[in-house]
Every structure is written in structure tokens, then in C-alpha cells.
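Protein details
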Amino acid sequence: MKRIHFLLLFLLVQLSLQAQFNRGVQWTEDGNGYRRIENKEIIQYSLPDLQKTVLISAKQLTPAGKSEPLTVRSYEFSEDGRKALIYTNTARVWRYDTRGDYWVLDLDKNTLTQVGKGRPVSSLMFAKFSPDGKKVAYVSERNIFAEDLATGKITPLTKDGTTRLINGTFDWVYEEEFDCRDGFRWSPDSRNIAYWQIDATKIRNFLMINNTDSTYAFNVPVEYPKVGERPSPYKIGVVSASGGATKWMSTPGDPGNTYIPRMEWASANELVLEQLNRKQNQAKCLYADVKTGRTTEFYTDSDDAWVETKSSYSWADSPAGWDWLNGGKEFLWMSEKDGWRHLYRVSRDGKTEKCLTVGDYDVIGIVRIDEKNNYAYFMASPDNATQTYLFRAKLDGSGKAERMSPVSQVGSHRYDISPNGAWASHSFSNANTAPMNEWLRLPDHKALKESDDITAKLAAQTSAKKKVEFFRVKTEDGTELDGWMVKPDNFDPAKKYPIVFSVYGEPASSTVMDRWGTGRNGLYIGDMAKDGYIYASVDNRGTPSPKGRAWRKAIYRKIGNVNIRDLAMGAKTLFAQNAFIDTSRVAVHGWSGGGSSTLNLLFQYPDLFKTGIAVAAVADQLSYDNIYQERYMGIPQENREDFVSGSPLSHAKNLRASQNLLYIHGTGDDNVHYQNAEKLVNELIKYNKQFQFMAYPNRSHGIYEGEGTSRHLNTLFTKFLKEHCPPGAK
């Protein structure tokens, strides 16, 4: 996602216990129980007693004539709870397995029926029941279909879909940068379906080359709008679930120069849309009359840099959904308009609004909106940007937000709160404490089972040396940066040790977080601390840390400059404060945006950084996609010099003979194209700069496909680091 720092995947692996605790939990409608997939069955647990009931057995999930039950990837129930839609046999589309097969289990008739019969295997996407439970709609091969569950009749609602004219889902860049995947919505009365149509016919293919899978090489095309290229035009249409002509909405402006990342039903006859301008610094909210197609603007939010969309936040219902209150008379909106990210309650006409989370702090994400009890539950950390805690604020705007997470649990928390606000699954960890999980009663935050009580477990722990140490440094520019450090085993402050920095540096991610996995290196074979390395990271301005708008937006039009200087000056201050750091042995590494930062640190600050390992880096900012790069850097036709100035390509000539560079890239990278590697290699050749280079044939941005790939990459990383930045004390 968003030029993600793939070393963070290692952190996600380390957080797997936390994730498994929450993954797949589906609350019952009344909020007093939850469902999950266990041992090829769907199980329901009641709360607070956690009594287990088999809701759907393996036998019920076994198709006629088959001996094994379906492997359930996910499921949903119809609104009346009498039918279940089962998703199975899935296939990956870019990042996630969003294609597969769907089956409907009728719990009254005890029948299991596949939907979409006759369609290609694993070709159905985003299937969902109509609100009345009588039909299922889905996308297959870029067209939308509705299937009558009583008769089995399949009605194509669109027929013009192609690889480039996309109905009901999205092109590569919408998916990558807006998290837009499911591109159609049932109307509340089950009569109509609203959908996106994306016209990628004018987007040029970027051609990747596969040299290994056949005697003759062949192209792998990806429709990919480079920065400076116009976006794919969109249309928003409404079609009857019985078929017929589509009614297109008359959205304002040029659809090839704007974006619509959000669309939902506001009522049975009206849609609500969010439209962004090309620079993504203005968001307009529109109502669309589905009968006439006429749109009306009712609310606007803007920023001198960029406006975040709902997909940028951790939200209870994902990027989908418009959060209505008071029977649809009001809605919730997130904005940084007062300098902090806050939640606002806005009237339906957009004329009045009230901030619900007043204060000098950021709302990190919404966990649950509990309108019945007048609360919004959200994550925040007013005092320490590396941590996350649960808070709640009243939806009527009265009183101050109150912290729910216990003060004794210092670190990072995750919650999944029931619809009635009475229960929650809770995970806790910090950089030195492995994940702990419990079921809670709210609002008193009390564990349902004494054996799972996290507060008691923490109190019972013996005091141990904290392996990961957090710190703050103030640079010579006056900027205070958060950081962490892992010192070598048997550390002696009278000796000098090499230091290895892990960096990212861009708006998509932070590296300094007080949670389990921080301080660990997923590329290094062995134990860095045991081998005698200091491992460290600092977080620069421009990362999404909850430190206010000014912190996050300082990087606007300055990627490759302000973030790189912060990282370099943070390292410089760290060196000055710690005599045990051997400044002749300083290494830095990063992936994707972190690879770009690694290159820029080597090239722009050669006096500080001696060794670098960069993976899948954007060497030339003019080579990346339009949505990401234009959001944070502007449009190159207007300020091309900023893109050039911040690109590692412009500084490659500064690599010194005394420095050591290892550059790694997958030739099948559909995200950060291998083109970046070849441009960088050419520039280094031009100036006779010697370096080490590794290309992984046909590997994607994550460089994990193929037998032996991860082991080879880890070995390469470790060997290069040890040779050019030797471990151990001096």
C-alpha cells in the first residue's frame, strides 16, 4: 500500500498474535456475541460467558458430491440472518485476494448453492446480499451481475466492461492509493445498484518484461498513470437490479482531472459523494439525485497541502460507509482544519458543525460509533506519539474526551468494540512486551476472564532490562524527533560500536512505534545485538505520527529534502550525545520509500553515512504514480524542480569511493518500477561510481516470490552489512 516500507511487514508478522485475536471476528447484530471461523466451521460465542455454539457446521459447508467443506476466507449474513454468503477459492489481485467463488447457504432449507455459475473460476468479486436478502450482486471480469436467489436467474447489469473500461471495481492506482476496491453499492430498498465506472483506456501501459518463463521474452503490461499524467476518468452510475439502462450522475468538473474516492447511498433516492481536485487539497461533498442525475455541493474541506480521505485513517468500517447520525440528519467528518486531526459532527446540509474531540492532539482512528449511548470511541495519544490508547468522546460534543486504556498499560493498544459498546476484544503490546489479548467489559475496561487479565499479567512481571530504548533528540534546526535504539549485548559505554539505522521517511508510514516488533530486523540473519551492532531509527517530519498537522504537512513539496535533513540531523545529534557510537561505521537501510531515503542519505550526507542498503527505491520521483506523488509533491508541470531536487537520481554523483552501496530491486515490481533501478545504475555509471547491485527476476515490490528468494535476500543483506560495516566493539 502507498509505496509501503516492506520491512514493516516483518513488524506485522511479529504482531500476528495480536492480529489473529481480532481477525475474522464478526459481531452479532445485538452486540452480545461474536462469530469467527474455527476448524472449518463458523462458531458463535456469547458474551460475557464466552459460551461456544456451532452456527454453521463443516457438514453444512460441504457441497453436494464433495467430501471436504469449503475453505472459508470470509462470510456475511443476510440482514434477517437466515442466509450466509461464503467466500472461498480466492485469488490475488495486486495486493489482496479479492477474486474468488461465492456460495449461499440457506439456513432454513439447509441448502448450499454456488452463485455465479457459468462465470470463470475465482472470478467473482465483492459479492453481497441485497438488503432484503433476495439477491446477490457481484463483479466478474469488470462487469456487474445480480442473481435472484429464488430462481437462480443471473442478470448482467453492465455489459461494456473490458480490461480498460472497469465497472464495479477500480484500476491499479485507485486501489493502491485510495484503498478503493469494492466499487458498487446496493440501495437501501434493494431496487438499484450504484457503481463506479473507471475509464483507463487513455492510461498508458507500463511494460514490465518477463525474461524467464518462456524461450521468448514477453511484456507484462500494467495500466499505470505516472505523475503528471491525467487520472482515469470516472463515472458514477445507478442501474436497476433487474437490469436496464444506467443513469449517470452529473458530477461537476472534469472527471479526468478529479477523483471520487467515496460514494455511498444517502437515502433510497440519493447518493453522497466525495470529490477531490487533482492536487487533492480540496474535498467537496455532493448529493446526487439518482432520478435526475443532478448533483449539489453541500460541504467543502481544504488544506494548503493535502486533504486526507477516510482510507487514510483507521476507521471501524474501513473506507466504505458514510457515518450518519440522528436518522441521517447529520454525519461525521474528520479534518485537520484547526491544526489537529479531529472528529466533527456536521449537519446534513453542511451548514453547521461541531468538533467532538477538542484539544491539542490527533485522533488516530475511529474504533466504534455508539450512537445509542452517545459515544465515539477512538484511538489517540496526546502525550507520546509513539503509542496508542483508547479514548471516547460524547457525540453531542459535551464534556472532554476520556481515556479508557489503563494508565498501567504503557504502549500500543488495539480494540474491536461491539455495536452496543458493551464489550471489546483488546490487544496490547509495547516494544519490550509481547502481545497480550483479552475480552473486556466496557466502560470499566474489565477482563471477562481472570486468566486473561492484562493488567494483572503486567503487574506480575518481574522487572527486566528494556532491550528497545526510546529517546528524543532535538536537531540543530530545533526539530524534536522520536527514536529508538537497541544496544549490543554486554554493552560497554567505554567502547565504540557500529550503528545501523532503519529508515522510511515518507507520509505512508512511521518507524518509531512503541509496539512489539519494533527494534527487530527482518532482513538480518542472526541477532544484531548479539553480534555487536547498535540498531536504531528516528522519525522525521512528514511521517503520519500524531503530532499535529504542521508535523505531517511539513514535507509537502519537499520529499527528499526536509525528511532527509531531519533524519541526517537526528543522526548527527545522536552521534554528539553518545560517544559509544563509532562514526566510522554508520549504516542505513530501507525499503521502498525507505530505500529512497537510504539513497538520499548516502548521497546528500556522505560525511555521516558510510554504508547503505536500499531496496525497491524510487530513484526518480517523476517515475511514480500520480495519486501518491501529486498528493504530496504537487503537479510536476507546475513545480518540476521540487521533484528533481528530492530525487536520489539528482544526487547520485555525490557517492564517494569510501562509501558502500548495495542496491536491490525486483524486475517485476508493478509498484515502484524496475525502471528506477536502471535509471540509478546509469547515473552511477556516468560518474564512475562503484557499487553492488542485485536484480531479482520477476519479483514484485515485496521480493518474496520464487523458491529461495527470501533466504537469498537475507543472506545478501547480512553478508554486505558485515563486510562493509563490521560488527563488534572497538
User: Anything to note?
Assistant: The first helix runs from residue 8 to 14. The two ends are 41 Å apart (CA to CA). Confidence is low (pLDDT under 50) at residues 1-23.
